[in-house]
Fold this protein.
Amino acid sequence: MPGPAARPRIPPAAWFIAAIGLMIALDAAAPGWRWLARPWTLTGVAVVGAGVVLHVAATNTFRRHRTTAAALARPVALVADGPFRASRNPMYLGGLLMLLGLGLLLGSVTPLLVVPFWMVLMQAAYIRREETLLAGTFGEAYETYRARVRRWL
């Protein structure tokens, strides 16, 4: 089970902000093929909005259960309602939607290359460790939840 020494030093939110910065920098410096033109790029607003709504709903669900939303912090409750009925990781899924929405808003190819790298990083550095922590903390209850609910969707 991961202890404090096993925690990544950089929180997921910092990686998310870095991904946004990199996407904007790539669009400015090396946009590549512009695959989406205005006004179609504005569809990204809806996708970003959906990501924000999902992230806020997941955060509020943690608060309602009086447990932590912090990555790799020890939870006091296994949360399986709200958006956690459809995804074991709705906060990361919300972040993914926000990044995809930004990619749509920018309308060029190269910023979208950041998204799969961000997903792989979240999976390797946080999600797998969080699942190990949850399994160690909640045992069979978590394994039942894990068998019932998919990781992303």
Remarks:
- The first helix runs from residue 12 to 29.
- The mean pLDDT is 94.
- Residues 33 and 71 are 36 Å apart (CA to CA).
